[in-house]
Design a protein that fits this description.
The protein contains 15 helices and seven strands. With 323 residues, the protein is of the alpha/beta class. Helix 5 runs parallel beside helix 7, helix 11 packs across helix 13 and helix 11 packs antiparallel against helix 14. The radius of gyration is 24 Å and the shape is elongated. The termini are far apart.
């Protein structure tokens, strides 16, 4: 197996190998598949999350006889790499005893050594889980909303995902709250109950700023959540620089390619937002804004912390006059 389609087919056919590694960009899907695959009736389950991993304990779990005729199931979830020599031995224990099941969810980026322990020859396999496309994300949230009894149509789901910056896990977490209403959910309910109560992210602040909307309330909420002024300025600089890359690419090619610009493919609605926003400004405006932000950051780092709020507010107001 090398993709979700093959994994889904293997699950439907009850043909999933006893040793399986899941990794990739979508932590949501890793969690989702681990939950489904580890739901084994009467299994003797050992779960090791993040810093809990200990090889001898994991080995002992797979080496013991299964209790009451069930299966021994080992689940490891970690962003730190488990040594390949450990993985080789744990996978071998699954090949030696078909009652053993080993699921390894890796949340880091350097997977190229680890996945070699899960070859078909060794009795295992691995699947890389990419972030779902926008249509897939909508279907995932739709299915979860139906399961919970939350009454959202296609457009409400789009709005919910947009409010959570395309994060499927955050969107699904909000469905319990919306299901309580027991009524059709519109963008108004989402804005009131989800967006209005959620922590305002820096990106949402920036979007309000660049669209000439009132940004003072979200700014205060971000500062109250613990963010500092320098972090907000550097985040704004990075966002403007990213918009400039979209601007240049569109000027050269006529259409944006997020893969070429960012190196990865974010949800489609985010690409559309970036593209539309980027062409609102010209070359001179980009240069002026970036220079202003760099000078503000330098002033903040050179002065006293008590001056930073005034410097930040002044910079944001100047940016808004430029756009």
């Amino acid at each position: 197996m090398r993709n979700r389609k093959e994994l889904d087919a293997a699950i439907a056919a009850h043909n999933v190998p006893n040793a399986l590694m899941l990794f990739g960009e979508s932590h949501f899907l890793i969690d989702r598949y681990i939950a489904a695959l580890s739901n084994v009736a009467d299994a003797n389950v050992l779960k090791m999350y993040h810093d809990e991993y200990h090889f001898e304990t994991a080995k002992a779990h797979l080496s013991q006889g299964s209790l009451f005729g069930g299966q021994n199931l080992l689940v490891i979830k970690s962003s730190k790499k488990v040594p390949k020599v450990d993985l080789d031995r744990l996978v071998a224990l699954c090949q030696k005893n078909s009652d053993n099941i080993f699921i390894y969810g890796y949340y880091g980026d350097d997977y190229r050594t680890s996945n070699k322990a899960f070859t078909k020859k060794a009795g295992g396999d691995f699947v890389r889980l990419y972030n779902p496309f926008a249509g897939e994300a909508i279907n995932i949230v739709k299915n979860e909303s139906q399961r919970l009894g939350a009454q959202l149509d296609h457009y409400s789901i789009q709005h919910l995902l947009s409010s959570q910056n395309g994060d499927i896990a955050l969107a699904c977490n909000e469905l319990n709250k919306l299901a309580i209403l027991q009524m059709p959910i519109t963008s108004k309910e989402i804005d009131d109950l989800v967006y209005g109560m959620a922590e305002i992210t820096i990106e949402q602040l920036i979007t309000a700023l660049l669209n000439r909307q009132d940004f003072k309330e979200p700014l205060e909420r971000i500062l109250q959540s613990g963010e500092d002024e320098i972090r907000i300025v550097t985040a704004l600089s990075a966002f403007i620089a990213q918009l400039y890359m979209f601007y240049v690419y569109i000027k050269l090619h006529g259409v944006a390619s997020a893969k070429a610009i960012l190196g990865y493919e974010p949800p489609k609605f985010i690409v559309q937002q970036r593209s539309q926003l980027s062409i609102k400004f010209n070359q001179a405006t980009y240069e002026t804004i970036l220079t202003l932000l760099l000078e503000t950051e330098l002033q903040m780092k050179s002065g006293t912390k008590t001056d930073n709020y005034a410097l930040l507010l002044s910079a944001l107001l100047k940016v808004q006059t430029l756009v």
